[in-house]
Design goal:
Blueprint (H helix, E strand, L loop, with lengths): L2 E4 L6 H19 L5 E2 L5 E4 L5 E5 L2 E5 L4 E4 L8 E5 L2 H11 L9 E6 L17 E5 L4 H13 L5 E6 L2 E6 L2 E6 L5 H8 L5 E3 L8 H7 L2
C-alpha cells in the first residue's frame, strides 16, 4: 500500500491531542459514524472504497493514494448540498471548527476523492445536481483537483499540462493557456465560461482547516 505522508506540527502535537481529541470524537460520532475506524491508542483510519486507508494520529496526517472515494451520506436524504474535501480529515476539521456556527451540518453529504480516482467515472450518482462546497488548500495541485472535480460533477473531462510557468488546458474542445501564478477555479471559469453551483471555503490565516485546527487558531 503506497501512502503519502504529511507530518504534523511536532512540539504542538501534545497540546493538540489534549485540546482537540474530545471535539474530534464528538463530530465523528455526530456526522461521520460508520465512516472511520478508531484504534485502541486513538489512531483514526478512514477507509476508501478500494480498501486503502487515510489515517490520523497524534496530530499527524497520512493521506492514502487511493483510486476510490470516502464519503459520509448521513445527510443524503435531508438536503442537496455536498462538501467535496481534499481528505477525510479536512472534512472532520471543518466540522470541528464550524460545528457551533452551522446548525445544518446534519443536512450535508461529505466526500473525498482518492488521489488516483478516475474522474468523471468515479463520481457517484448522488453527487450530481448538488450544491457543492469545496474544502481544498491553496497550492496548485489542490486547485487543479478542484477544477477536475467540478467539471466531472457536470460530466465533463479536462486535461492539464504544465510547461514551466504556464498551464496548458484542453476543455470542451478548446485549448487555453494560464499562468501558474494566481491560477484559480474562478479564473478557469472566467476563461472557459464554465458554470456550476460550487463555492470554495478556506480558513483565514491557514492553508487548510486541518492546519488551522492543529495550530489552535
Amino acid at each position: 500500500m503506497n501512502n503519502e505522508v504529511m507530518e504534523g506540527l511536532g512540539s504542538r502535537d501534545n497540546a493538540f491531542v489534549s485540546g482537540m481529541d474530545g471535539a474530534i470524537h464528538a463530530v465523528l460520532e455526530r456526522y461521520f459514524k460508520g465512516t472511520y475506524e478508531r484504534d485502541y491508542d486513538g489512531k483514526l483510519d478512514f477507509v476508501f472504497s478500494d480498501g486503502v486507508s487515510e489515517s490520523f494520529h497524534s496530530g499527524k496526517h497520512q493521506m492514502a493514494i487511493s483510486s476510490g472515494i470516502w464519503y459520509s451520506s448521513s445527510g443524503l436524504l435531508a438536503g442537496n448540498s455536498l462538501y467535496v474535501c481534499s481528505s477525510a480529515m479536512e472534512a472532520v476539521a471543518f466540522a470541528v471548527l464550524q460545528d457551533a456556527m452551522l446548525a445544518d451540518l446534519d443536512h450535508f453529504c461529505w466526500i473525498a476523492f482518492g488521489l488516483d480516482c478516475q474522474l468523471p467515472g468515479g463520481v457517484p450518482e448522488f453527487c450530481f445536481g448538488s450544491k457543492i462546497h469545496l474544502l481544498f488548500g491553496r497550492d496548485l495541485l489542490d486547485v487543479l483537483l478542484m477544477v477536475k472535480i467540478c467539471v466531472s460533477l457536470k460530466g465533463f473531462l479536462v486535461h492539464f499540462w504544465l510547461f514551466e510557468d504556464q498551464l496548458s488546458c484542453h476543455f470542451r474542445g478548446r485549448s487555453y493557456i494560464f499562468h501558474v501564478e494566481g491560477f484559480s477555479l474562478s479564473r478557469f471559469k472566467q476563461a472557459t465560461g464554465f458554470r456550476d453551483y460550487s463555492s470554495v471555503k478556506r480558513p483565514q490565516g491557514a492553508d487548510s482547516f486541518l492546519d488551522r485546527l492543529r495550530s489552535g487558531r
